Fold:
Amino acid sequence: MPDYEPPLPPVPESRAVSQARTRPSVVWLIPIVAALAGVWVAVTRILSEGPTITIVFQSADGLEAGKTKIKYNGVDIGTVTAIRLSDDHEHVITTAQMAPKTQDFLVEDTKFWVVRPRISGANVTGLGTLISGAYIGLEIGSSKQPKRDFVALETEPIVTGQVPGRFFILKTADLGSLDTGTPVYFRRLQVGQVTSYKLDKDGKLLTVQVFVRAPYDQYVNPETRFWHASGVDVSLTASGLQVRTQSMLSILIGGIAFETPATAPLEPPAEANTVFTLFSDRTTAFEPAAQHPQTYVLIFKDSVRGLVPGAPVEFRGIPIGEVSDIRAQVDLKTFRFSVPVTIELDPRRLGVNVVGGAAGDLEALRRRLIDSLISHGVRAQLRTGNLLTGAVYVAFDVFPNAPPATVDWSQQPVRLPTVPGQLEATEETVENIIEKVNKMPLQQIGENLNNSIANLNLTLISARNTLSSATETFVSARNALTTANGIVQPDSAQLQRLDQTLDELTRAARSVRVLSDYLEQHPEALLRGKPGKPK
Amino acid sequence: MMTRSLTAMDHGLQSCEVCGLLSRPAPPADEGRCPRCGEAIEFRKRASFEYTWAFLIAAAICYIPANVLPVLTTTTATGSVSDTILQGVVLLWSPTGWPLAIIVLVASIMIPSAKIVALAYLLITAQRGSIKNNRQRIRLYRMVEFIGRWSMVDVFVDTFTAALIQLQPLMSVEPGPGLIFFAAVVVLTMLAVESFDPRLIWDAAALQEVAHA
Structure:
């Protein structure tokens, strides 16, 4: 520093900054503790955090990010953390944070669905969600393959995998009043439910999936029949009015019933997911299944009123088929109307199981059988099955007086001969009789009859007179007879005298014979007299 | 030429922070007690930068879990919901409730973060010896000091709510782990403010002036 400078202003002193400590202050423990606490919290958070999964829904209706829970048996096991649309805007992808130790739940066949309040005829579920909002339910799969991205079910399954039992598939053309949750009955005991239904791709049949709880599932075997027990089954058939129901509940909401025919052979229980036909009612269900239905046509000249498709075809009371089609046709040449009725016959319904043999053999056999039946006078006839309803059925029966007929096998479908219906035949006869009666000269006959009766009256009067004199005559005749009776008594004097007289007569006759014998030998005796006794 | 500001320290004097009495420290010690009020006095707060930084860093660390972890767990019949501070703001945000939401947002999120940022700014500038905006910086310090305590309102509200709403089994409210960290943020920032010596701002200015002189 140069000397010439005055010592003013005073030179600042070096600052008295404390330099006692060179090591870091204890205060640094505070941020360290804070950092440790933060790290500890973070670590525990991460450790306690379960897996993150995504679930794809059709709709996020009722779902809320951060609020909607994933519950299993009522226990929260996760929360929806984010909801977003899929890239194609068709689905909703939800991200959910699962609770720790839920890895076992998230396997290949685990199913998720949204639980919403659902009120169907059979049951009310998810009422709690009215208050709490929808939540996501799940069914834990049995697979071991872990999975994180799921596609949710559209509807909540009726039966979850925890309930022992078996699923079966029913095919039906008509859903009737079925719905998911519709009960399944076995001997009027509710043993299961309809779990789902969907239309087949071809649109012709519906596939209905039912669940039958254990232990009732063992009563379902391959021969079991399922039928609609929907509501009240009122059938008006040739057999009359029939009302059949399963239970009060099924009257209201419908149902499915099953039973195994008693005649069916004992079989082991059906496998799960066996396909059955769902019949429209119990009667159809129990009819033997058609095996080789054959189509024939019957041409009726009389009215087919009361005949409907489905009407039975019977052979002497045994159902052997049914009417499938009824039409009318007119012959342009003769302008005669006739009704071809198409029927389907099934030999199995006769209780004849057709097994073995080639198709051709079967065909030949059938032709022979039908030919022989027709030649023996078997004909089809319309008969009234039920006078009240007028329902008519087709009957095959033996008509020995039927005009002879043959079957033309070249036609397709084959035409079988018919005879006029019972009612028509009767009508015809009665008509004939009435006609004849009409033709009688009834008036004339009446008049003649009247005259005759008058004459008869007169005759009768004289007859009565005659009869009174006749009575007298009879009285005297009886007297005479009494007398005569007295004469012919065995101990009467007359008889004894008669005996004696007869004896006398016998003796006299003998004398005459002796005389005549003598005269024969000695005719001269007549002249010379009897010679003296020989000497 | 700028007027040179005098500081007590320049003249070897210590000022009491409580009563403002100037006193000469008894040599050789730098520290002593105020002869009037008995308060411990020193030229400058001991290791002010170090303490402030420590508290500030601790507060900044705690600020993260305070905002990430739930501060309130509400258990109702429909399930339990845990809300962080920010979720609470979102929850309150409605056409009618937005003023409340803003209060919570300001008091619970913006003020603590602003405090941390402001203190960090003050520390850095003071340490770097910046002389710019001295006045604004001292105003900022006063604001931070004044406003800091109000952040505690949040903690109070939470604890009161938790204590009052115990309607088992219908509904209950429990403080979450985030609340502890939030309280720690508030306390630590207050401590940081307390340990920061605003005179350091002027010291830097004085040094600069000396350098210029």
